[in-house]
Amino acid sequence: IILSGFVGPTPIHKLSNLSIKTTVIYGMYGSASISQPLHKVFLQLHQPPLRNILYSNLPVHSKWYIWKYKGEITYALVGSADFSTNGLTIPYRETLAETSSDTFPELDNYIKRILNNSVSCNSVNPNFVNNIKCEMVLYDPRTGEVPLKSGLNWGNSEN
Questions:
Q1: Which pick of 27, 30, 54, 128 has the fewest CB atoms within 10 Å?
Q2: What is the pLDDT of residues 104-129, one digit of tens each?
Q3: Which of 27, 26, 23 is nearest to 39 (CA)?
Q4: Which residues are 68's β-sheet partners?
Q5: pLDDT per residue over 57-71, tens digit each?
Q6: Backbone Cα Rg of the chain
Q7: Distance between CA 20 and CA 58 in Å, rounded?
Q8: pTM for the whole thing?
């Protein structure tokens, strides 16, 4: 189980080279939503039962990497590294540390709460997926006019 505040498609794609049942939870979906292009990629990468991609309805910025065997946690890493190319590959930028086995029961309770408040990426209503918009004013808001030599006409300046 991988719980990450933000998730990138490349590490999930690389999971397809492994025959390990994996659940990836995009933690910040509950507050940041997700862009339509990224959502579409996740839909293609979502391959149950081997690879499940979930969106947490609770805004979670935690980064937990958990290995389970027969339903029990056997190993876990926690830290600051998102499950993304930058989070996992830029040296010294992020950290991950092993947890001790005495923390496994609490960790298991926490992850179960997140799982119970998550939805499969393929069950999300596309109308609730974030459309990214960029709005830019091309005129001077004080005068309502396009400047002659700046802004939209920046290349028309003759000095």
A1: 128
A2: 999 999 999 999 999 999 998 765 56
A3: 26
A4: 73
A5: 999 999 999 999 999
A6: 21
A7: 26
A8: 0.79
